[in-house]
Amino acid sequence: MVHIKEFRIVMPVSLEEYRVAHMFVVMKMSQQHTTGEEGIEVVENRPFEDNALGKGRYTNKIYRLQSKIPSWLTTFAPADALIMQEEAWNAFPICKSVMKCPYFPRFQLRIETVHRPDNGQSENVHGLSEEQLAAREVEYIDIASSEGNYWSYLVGNNNMDFSIFKSARTGRGPLLEGWQDRCDPVMTTYKLVTIDAPYWGFGYRLEQALIAGEKALFLESHRNCFSWIDEWYGMTVQQICELEQQSHSALNEKLGKQMLTTSTGD
What we know:
Blueprint: E1 3-11, H1 15-33, E2 39-50, E3 54-64, E4 84-91, E5 94-101, E6 104-116, H2 130-135, E7 137-141, H3 150-155, E8 187-196, H4 203-227, H5 229-232, H6 237-264
Parallel strand pairs: 1-7
Antiparallel strand pairs: 1-8, 2-3, 3-4, 4-5, 5-6, 6-8
Helix pairs in contact: 1-4, 1-6
């Protein structure tokens, strides 16, 4: 059975600010999660254009994060076989990514994202059919909360207390109860997660685990977006793109050196 869930994350930034913030956070978190022994390899990064999304940036990445695989899943496959491949099309304010695992060829995780200048109250921004709407679950993620569980431990745990946080450069914050209805500027990230893992015995458990993992990642990355605001605020998309190119080269070099060392036995 295909699992469909929509996450809505309200942010105290404008759409254009979020575009820069998200690029900055993806870059910085990729650096944090690439240790040399495992991490994120950027295979391809280029412009694209198609009729559905328009113009944007296409990336093809390989995730080697064996230490973050739930132990129960290694009973079905060796940890080093659970490598994820991600194709992403970023045509902000619309984005799409598809993740696959070559070891489980029928598995697919798709994330379709729409960004709107609102406080999370728009309905059916993804244009779902009545059947899809009936199957869809909706959950709001409050970046002012800091849930702790197995997945938040793995993706990182930003412990910033937003009830007392205030940006030095923008004056935004703190985020007190009901902040979503009062802040200006404001925007919302609508993330539609669709998972299909048609494997008897563990497919449902895998779907539930990945939903929980994506939620933890969404919360962590968006908390980082705001808590790191004084680092990225004022930067342009072009400046971030230039930093990305440098970062991708550094990530691949770090990961490549470790893989070469491992293969030669040095």
